[in-house]
């Protein structure tokens, strides 16, 4: 069956053809032509299908067309199992063998390959249907839907266009009769106009009145002597002339569009809109157009869409690496794949183009027909210079910026690429730039991206970065007169010849009041005496010859406080011996002294340091005073052959890196770290035992500890655990939730024992058999026996005698090789793709920590669910065969172990753990009873699950993101439960790592603030699980900060916020908890007779009632302080 036209499906009946074509004959030219001219081919596979060589030849021809031109192929398996088709077994196999008699081996091979391929194409199975008429009706609908996104031949070579059109058609919502306006938003050169033209081409036949107004950016500007009103009339005139196909159209008032089109169904695409007034002139309101009209606006400026009230916006993202390479190949080689021997250089070119389609097309066409040597020769030019066509398009967005925003753009392009928002804000705090609003402007105009990792970072496309540096380069032919110098040679020339102006430093002796100084390999032993460091926010002098920090600088006593310095990086300063401690560095947060090989004294220079690296120094120990006074240190790197012992580590450390230390076991100071999440131990070659580690650990990485023999982890007593069920449609009741959750005991834990070759066999066995980890990596030569399904290479197929259910899980084991030539290391993630019946049912990312060089074969073990998202619903009843594919060539062997539905280990305790984080993301079938039980009966740190409204027990409710509780009396131990309703923007999935903040205020004074991370597990596990519907997020918190409480006689205001713009807080609720448990709001309100005032000192309260709580004040040490303040 073939689909030849949009309007109808033309079926070529097999029975009719049987009369025309004699058995054994090949298919005729008219049928070949019909196949090749078809848009969609439908293959009906039955038990007798293989009895006809004509059918088999037809199949080969269809698949050739699919490969050559991307023809859509759909399948129906009529009373036949796809496995029989794939393997030519059963009745299907008998018919096939009979047909193959007297046929050549070449024919048989072609047919077998075609059957194996077509059997993996997802289709309809008649055995799954009780009503064949219903199956046919559904299939006809599926074919129609395929046709709705079938492209014109003009757009066949546009990579990824089908996916864009499917999403846009869904967004246009044609089942709705009302007029609708949507936006297409993305950076210059991303392909917005191409997508819009293809969409217009596809939809045009459904609209009698249609118009594509292209390139509105800069067009239709008012000319001298013509005012804005006339310009708007001109725009409307252009629109109506095109729509109504009347050249002599004259518009004399701005109501003309509504007058002419108010009752007409129209399709209008306004392309590349750069001005809100233009949009308002052309499509001011939906009421201007008749029912069923669709208006589509493309722009680089998201603010235009937002200001015009367009809610549905499609963001055009960058293509994947594979798609980018395909775009380049189509432009350079006129084919979709890389030409022989060009793979490495083509990938390099695609990377330099930053996956921007415009850049890929322009650069590809410029290299068409050139030799491989010429491609390699042009790499430097591509990396450092913009093609004129690309520059002309990218420059328009920059030119339209305000003066301040242009300055910020150039600062980012030249200096602040991949820096955090906080860093850039601090560096430019004293400038006249409005950094916060400027970044927002650049982001909505697609000139930068703000990524909500922790902390948020700024990135800029590589071609935009080139544009910014080119703008600076054009400021002057003399490097010293430019605003920024980027190239090392130009900087050296300016400093050596003292040719700089006020824009750039005029020689090292005259350094101005800098906020950032980054000078690698600084040649002098001291900084110049005239250097004024008091404005420094960041000082980076890696690999310099400095012997004493601040040495030689004449600091007056009045400025011995460097109160702005936040980051100090002296990595690799091998001559540095002394760090003065007589300078106040209270603001210092990050210190890197790695490889300062002569440094002997511990840099006890600030109590607010959160990151410290003192590896490969001569420091012998951590002073006890540091462990007692440093209360903010989170990440601590230490270790060298000079470190005698490690007896003191601040208890607040959450990430600890130990290297080159002569220890045989883990020091007691490490075992006592209650907040430790990650432990890295590297090249501790005498370490024999790894035992007694803190149960709070999520990740353990041990590298090159060649004496390590025994390992023991406290798996079953975690201080906190994550329970996360993402997109699990089988979870309906509380019983289901507990049952399925038992498989997720603590899945974010990771254990890596790289190159630890002395590890005993018993230790390996125990580690591998555990079930509660993200991944495990350790040395080994073979797949363990418990992995009963095994195969050589990087793929394996599992066939079950029964069926796999939606809650089925697996554990995979890979034996990875070491290659002395390629030096195999885990520098990129390993992808595990699960395929059933040709459909990808899940895709898992496993990233066992970067840059570990393997010196021998290693095992990588990880676990996961079989199904993801909606797939478990669709295939749950029929799936009995699953193929596992791993994306790394260095996989020698792979093994899979199917886990029982109840899990191989169960939770030792119930869910009543106040430190547990529970997530049922997109578990749409969770019933109301289960939701109620989770909210009312489980104890947790926080919980998230689908929901449409705030539960009834949250008696204080408000629409929006804030709520005020009327006055009452609260003690230091009062707590609350908060509930917020999160609504996602389905067109823009939320980022990996978003944060919910709750601020509590009384009389304008902040009495507490809390932060929660509903999706933090996705960040740690590198999987993305965007919300597909509204979700309820519940968390608990204390009313007051630690060591502070107050009895309040005024209202308390709760304000919630989310740092992800595509998640909206639509409603919030509160429940006040009593000291001994849960109290009703009525009981809380009855206690409102106590009058209490908040002092200016945040740790002092003033009260005139409730003297029974004075004992609590004494415990907090506040009473004595209060009396002292009164005397003063």
TrEMBL record:
Catalytic activity: NAD(+) + H2O = ADP-D-ribose + nicotinamide + H(+)
Gene Ontology biological process: defense response; signal transduction
Any one GO molecular-function label of the UniProt entry: ADP binding
Region (Disordered): 1079-1098
Enzyme Commission number(s) from the entry: 3.2.2.6
Keywords, sorted A to Z: Hydrolase, Leucine-rich repeat, NAD, Plant defense, Repeat
SUPFAM superfamilies, A to Z: L domain-like (SSF52058), P-loop containing nucleoside triphosphate hydrolases (SSF52540), Toll/Interleukin receptor TIR domain (SSF52200), Winged helix' DNA-binding domain (SSF46785)
Tagged with keyword Repressor: no
Cell cycle as UniProt keyword: no
Domain TIR per the UniProt entry, residue ranges: 1-147
Ranges in a coiled coil: none
Superkingdom classification of source: Eukaryota
PANTHER family according to UniProt: DISEASE RESISTANCE PROTEIN (TIR-NBS-LRR CLASS) FAMILY, LEUCINE-RICH REPEAT-CONTAINING PROTEIN
Record's protein name: ADP-ribosyl cyclase/cyclic ADP-ribose hydrolase
Species the sequence originates in: Brassica campestris
